[in-house]
Amino acid sequence: MLKLLVMLLRTSRSSLLTTLLFGLASGASSAALLSVINQALARPEEERLRLGLAFGGLAVLAMFTRAGSQMLLNGMHQNIVMDLRRRLARQFLAISLRHLEQTGSHRLLSSMSSDTVMVGVGMTALPEFFISITIVTGSLIYLAWISWKMLLVVLGFLAVGGLAYSQATSPAVKLRQQVRQLENGLFKRFLSLMDGAKELRLHRPRRIEFLERVFDPLVRDIRGKWVRAENLFALASSGGMFVYMVIIGLLLFVVPLFSPVSQAALVSYTLVILYVQQPLNSILTTVAYVNRAVVALENLHKLGLTLTPENETPWALPPETPARLRAFQQLELRGITHTYRRENEDGSFTLGPIDLTVKRGELLFLVGGNGSGKTTLAKLLTGLYAPEAGELLVDGTPIRNEEREEYRQLFSAVFFDFHLFDQLLGLGSPEQLDQARHYLSKLLLDRKVQIQDGSFSTTELSQGQRKRLALLTASLEDRPFYIFDEWAADQDPSFKEVFYKEILPDLKRLGKTVLVISHDDRYFGLADRLLHLEAGRLTPLEQPRLDQVGT
Predict the structure, then answer these.
(1) Beta-ladder partners of 462
(2) Which residues neighbour 474 within 8 Å (Cβ) at sequence distance 6 or greater?
(3) Cα distance between residue 274 and residue 142, in whole Å
(4) Residue 351 · residue 504 · CB < 8 Å
(5) Mean pLDDT of the chain
(6) Which whole number is the average pLDDT over 227-253?
(7) What is the 3-state secondary structure (H, E, C) of 188-205?
(8) CA distance 513 to 362
């Protein structure tokens, strides 16, 4: 709870104080109403008109302050959730790409949608918790003023009830943690439903087995654990209500047998105890919300997300890459290695050690078998992956960790698993939009796609056409170094000619450095150098003669 309170004070200090003031005013007016009711029951009829006016005023005050407190809480809750999601989006980009890839998109989506809401609910429940604590404390002080002996009886039973509630709900909290972990798997299955829609429709046995042996057992497990957890909370809550009724029964029927108590004291005690029932329930509900929020925070921490501003470093860096980097003449990978576990295989794969020097303006082709590490090498070269050993140098000067973000701005890349944004984000100047329209025509897309308000009119295209739009976006970025990862694999033969014999030479004439990952051996003669990667080792290859290109 302390961690949530610190986060709340850091993000919503003013809203918290205002909400507390409204809530305390609501609680105070409600308590004053209780006092007026007690007085009205004890005073003669002629004094009730004055008490009735006070009752009416306090009722109006309680209504408005309660409504104001709830409205402030609603706004604060959504502000907190919005702030958490904005911060998570920034932290997703601040932590390492390799960590994100290993984590999996299903867990990230689950955290973005579920955990942020749970943390927000837990944080916004805290003001209500403190208001309820204040009301209960004030009510207990009032009861002690009436009869401290009766208060001891009440406190004893409340302590027993609280301990029993804690013991009863402990298994429920563990069940909720299990449900939250299962929900990560549920998001993964939902992604499989969407990404594998074609395959599931085409193969009935696969579809039936997916639904009956993969999906249905998971949702049944979630349902079972969720129901058991909520039933335990319901039983604990009902038990708490029973303890409450026992306290009232003791005060009304047992305590008077052993200690003389006035009728007025019994009435006051009964009214106050009935009144604090709602604040006590609010306290127990808040504890449950806080427990859920703590589980959500643990899930976020497992993803490497802290919900603190310290991890948002990329947004404090200069928007422009320093001239020293943009004017590079040579990039070098010296003794770089990177190890990762292969999918669906035992053991790990080590790329390197890699020694590679790339001079400005070179056109390099990188070839190798599937799984040889070509894309991983490209990610190391661009700074997307941090090497486990070795150095990345610009003109002989090593790139420090704090310079990695600036270094990455040297590159434009279209990776094999690229993502195409439907907006020209960061590329909205009039000159760039004019260039975009020119590229649409050059890439033979002007009849299918238009530029409207800085966005593509559609991205619902074939994979080859989507790659052309990704190439358009990369061209607009005008970076000194371009990387194309199997870009031509989805292009028809005529457009492969355009790519290799027009686009790549144009980039070279503009002084751009280009690395092309390719299997199109008929165009290898266009490269200044041909590199071969096999089993994590990089070696040069003899190039075909230029007059053999395209034959």
Answers:
(1) none
(2) 412, 413, 414, 482
(3) 14
(4) no
(5) 82
(6) 84
(7) HHHHHHHHCHHHHHHCHH
(8) 5
Q: How far apart are CA 340 and CA 349, in angstroms?
A: 5
In whole angstroms, what is the distance from residue 536 CA to residue 376 CA? 10
For residue 315, is pLDDT > 50? no
pLDDT, greater one: 514 or 70: 514
pTM for this prediction? 0.69
The identity of residue 346, as a single letter, is D
DSSP string, 61-120: HHHHHHHHHHHHHHHHHHHHHHHHHHHHHHHHHHS-HHHHHHH-HHHHHHIIIIIHHHHH
Q: To which residue do tokens 């990089």 refer?
A: 538
DSSP 384: S
Dist. CA 132–CA 270, nearest whole Å: 19
- Encoding tokens for residue 178? 């299990």
Burial of 441 (0-12, 13-18, 19+ CB in 10 A): exposed
H or E element, residue 37: helix 2-42
Residue 369, SS3 per DSSP:
coil
Tens digit of each residue's pLDDT (9 = 90 or more) over 196-237:
877 788 778 888 888 898 899 999 999 999 899 889 888 888
Helices (H) and strands (E) in the chain, counts: 19, 12
Name every residue whose Cβ is closer than 8 Å to that of residue 316 and which is 6 or more positions away in sequence.
Answer: none
Query: What would the pLDDT profile of 28-48 be if each residue is shown by its tens digit?
Result: 787 777 777 777 776 777 677
Domains, the chain, ordered by start:
1-303 (1.20.1560.10), 361-390+399-541 (3.40.50.300)
Q: How far is 499 from 489, CA to CA, in rounded Å?
A: 11
Size (the chain), residues: 551
Going by C-alpha positions, the residue among 97, 477, 437, 476 that lies closest to residue 321 is 477
Helix (H, G, I), strand (E, B) or coil at 386: coil
Q: What's the CA angle centered on 238, arms 233 and 241, to 5 degrees?
A: 130
List the structure tokens of 519. 């299997």
Asked if pLDDT for residue 56 goes beyond 80, the answer is yes
80, 12 Cβ separation under 8 angstroms: yes
Which tokens belong to 294? 């703590």
Nearest alpha carbon to residue 394 among 376, 411, 414, 377:
411
Q: Is the pLDDT of residue 88 over 70?
A: yes
Give the pLDDT score at 2.
62
